[in-house]
Amino acid sequence: GIQVEQSPPDLILQEGANSTLRCNFSDSVNNLQWFHQNPWGQLINLFYIPSGTKQNGRLSATTVATERYSLLYISSSQTTDSGVYFCAVESNFGNEKLTFGTGTRLTIIP
Amino acid sequence: EAGVVQSPRYKIIEKKQPVAFWCNPISGHNTLYWYRQNLGQGPELLIRYENEEAVDDSQLPKDRFSAERLKGVDSTLKIQPAELGDSAVYLCASSGTFEQFFGPGTRLTVL
Predict the structure, then answer these.
(1) Which of A98, A104, A105 to mutate to test the interface with B (most CBs of B within 10 A)?
(2) Closest residue on chain A to B92 (Cα)
(3) Is the pLDDT of residue A96 over 80?
(4) A46: Cβ contacts below 8 Å, ≥ 6 apart
C-alpha cells in the first residue's frame, strides 16, 4: 500500500515562531488532507489539498503532486496550535481509504 | 450544522466483556468510516460503508468485531469478546464527496 512519511516527528517552538511540516507519499494520490489532533483527541480538518496551494488565516498548505509531497505552513504560532498534525492520503489506485502518516507533534511554548 | 457524533466518549471494561460504540454521521453524508487509533499512531481504517453496504471491511478482525449501519445513517461497532490489545481510540468519520470529517472518538480501556 501507499507509504506516508511526515517530518519532523517532533517540533518545539516559541510562541510567535513560524514552522513548516512536511508530508512525503510514495504513490500518486487523488485525496490529501491535513488534520490537527488537539490535546483532547479531536481530529480537526485543516485542508483538503490533493494539489495546489490553499491558505486559511495563519495556516497555508501546498501539495506538489508530481513530486509526491505536501507542506503545511504555520505562521505566528500560538499555544493553541499545539497538538499532533497528520497528513492523510488516498492513493489513485486505492479503495477510497485514507492512509495516515505518523504525525508531527508540535509544542508551542509561551 | 452538527458534526459527527459518537458515544460513549470513554469506556472501561474487563477483558472478555462485550462493548459497543455508536456513531451518527453528518446529515447527508452517505459514506461512513470506522477507524482505530493506537497510542502514538495515526488512525487506521477498520470498515467503510456506502449507505447500508460495507464496501471495505478487509481490516476488520471479523472473529470478534462486527459493525452495522441500518437504514444508511447511524452505525454501531461491536467487539465481543474484548481483549487487552483492543485498548485504543475508536473514531467514526463521514464524507459527502472527498473530504472526511471525524467525530471525537471513544477511548476504550480493556483491563
Answers:
(1) A98
(2) A43
(3) no
(4) A33, A34, A35, A36, A56, A59, A61, A72, A85
